[in-house]
Structures
1.
Amino acid sequence: MSSIITVGGITKTYGETIAVNDLSFSVEEGEIFGMVGPNGAGKTTTIECIEGLRQADRGEIQVMGLDPIRQERQLRPLLGIQLQQAHLPDNIKVWEALDMYASFYDNTLDWEDLLEELGLMDKRGTTFRKLSGGQKQHLFIALALLNDPRLVFLDELTTGLDPHARHNIWDLVQEVRQRGKTVFLTTHYMEEAENLCDRVAILDQGKIVALDTPANLIRDLKISERISFQVKGEWKSGALEDLPGVKNVQRQGDKVVVLGPANGAQVSASIVTGVVNALAEAGTQFSDLRTEYPDLEDVFLTLTGHQMRPERSE
Ligand SMILES: Nc1ncnc2c1ncn2[C@@H]1O[C@H](COP(=O)(O)OP(=O)(O)O)[C@@H](O)[C@H]1O
Ligand SMILES: [Mg+2]
């Protein structure tokens, strides 16, 4: 495999804010590469620097061996770009949007085929305003694919969509990759990164805190269990942190998440018994206790000390 994108030490500041802080990484041809992190982590700034839409203060970027700003004209036909803040006029019809975008390029795919593949054929005469959130995003994907690009950028494509619409988009992104394209996407959904991406860079406060396949990131946690429960009534910690094998205890409102045991630690196979006993002894009432395997969200939590989202809602 060869790198289709290489980023070397880019930094971008806005006044006092360091949006992106000395980032280096590369993206391989044919992969779905994800950049995941909370709001404000620097995802959009990074993707827009790579797209040539913003200029980094420092550092080097090469996309297919070209400089995204100085060689923008050579690069543009090879890139498919969907912007986080994409807008179309309310009254533009789906086919008109495709027709307009097609006029920007010398060579385009047949947009009728594209509509068919993206399940939008019956919406071709519908105005943008009347599309659902998911349909709008399908249209933005269609627009990003119109010039048959080699590399597709998708910035927080599924933010705000319901889980069903989000899963449809995941299928679509997989199909885009199956057509041989490289996908660079950003998301603030850890679950999305875990399910969709071959490799994930976890971004926090403008820095990459980890970069690997989701499976490796989770394995490197060296934690085998996540226990979560709801506290009912008064919370008495029961010194969960001090139990053998417990690596991390996080409380958000009534929800508590306990991570452990460290793989290979000299503790019994599960920390559930210890946790339940400690809660009972402390007199803490709880419900909805469950044990699960750790996921990318736990990787983020362990590496940064804070949670991605206040609630693990989906
Ligand atoms: N045009 C801008 N002017 C000033 N600050 C900005 C601008 N764009 C982004 N920022 C700031 O830079 C940081 C990173 O933003 P952004 O790259 O949009 O993060 P993300 O996409 O991960 O939410 C945030 O603190 C944000 O407020
Ligand atoms: Mg963003």
2.
Amino acid sequence: MKFHLQTFGCQMNVYDSESIAGILRAYGHETVSTVQEADIALINTCSVRRGAETRVLGQLGHLKTLKSRGIIRYIAVCGCMAQKHGEDLLKERGYIDLILGPAALSRLPCLLDRLENHDGPIVELSQLDIEDRDDFVPNDGPISYPCFVTIMKGCDRRCSYCVVPDTRGPERSRSPQNVLDEIRGLVDRGYREVTLLGQTVDSYRYDNTDFVGLLEKVNAIEGLRRIRFATSHPADANERLLFALRDLEKVCEQLHLPVQSGSDRILAAMRRDHTREDYLRIIDRLREIFDGISAAHQPAISTDLIVGFPGETESDFEETVDLMRRVRWDSAFMFKYSIRPGTYAATLPEHLDEETKARRLARVIDLQHETSREINQRLIGETLEVMLDQPSADKRKHSGWDGRSRQGKTVKVAGVSPDAQPGDILCVRITKTTSYTLFGDVVSYSVR
Ligand code: SF4
């Protein structure tokens, strides 16, 4: 069967989509690049924000039209929205043929067989339990970066606004052996960098191996050059992790540490299990550990922020703005709070109007934009180690390659040799910067 796969949402979904594609190809199915060529359109969905669900519903409407015209035969909805809405999704949209939760992906080939035998529509929502922690399907597609490796699934925290514990189940870590085997396989295929994924990656634990223990094992893999990880939770970010960022040579100097709000009152309502002070203590300690190290090797710190959480006053919001000025993140993912039905936050009084939320969001975006611009500007004249991702897509604007520094910043590189490959590591002198991008010229080639 020819399949087309579209992914919405987070890095975890990107990884799951690679697994879906890998398992379907292993069973003789063929990926196609446009949905019009496909027999089955699969959508890997996200429920974290209302906007993501709205986009999925819009796409489903488009697929319904294609199916009614006989252009595609089946529509499958996978991932968090499938798990969360299950049968209801099917009741409301009878044209869907298959609904599949995130823990049931490995059953996809046999479910496609059932569809072919007119055994649909099918709803397959597996138990999200401890048993499915070690299943993974090797990524067999063309080499592209970033390359994600899920090391754990689910989440045991109960942030009051979040649906993840319900859609992805309790936290369960994969065995170190299983993770190392997957990464060694990727290195054999030519990958030089991996990003280890988990909802709270720093709470990873399998028997006696904690997250830093796992990082040490991955760091020892021959042929691998870079390791990144996301997402860390402040309550699990310990001193050893901060030292690992400095001392394990393959671990890149990049920490994504969501704070969500600068107000302790709102953090408590969010049930974040950390305070503003806890967060600042981690950031200050990290900067102390990196004290004396050149600008080119300072860690890049990023965060997630939610503005307009129920009950957020102007003074709570000002505390978030104040925290932004205090921490000076390299970058931030910033969102307006959106109601997620079924969460505790949805039941809270004092939901804010859209105008207030939009105004607050615009303000934090402006401030972050300015901070990112200033931080990046200081890198002009520095030489950074850049790993190439791919030739720049917009040849009119930039004829070189896109790559990333160890800090995870996008670098547009000029003067790359014609036989360059994704994964090559170059030394690049930075000549120009914006808030989001660095530009530079090759100074020298490192090892491939
Ligand atoms: S830590 Fe909180 S926000 Fe992150 S996945 Fe778990 S419950 Fe959701």
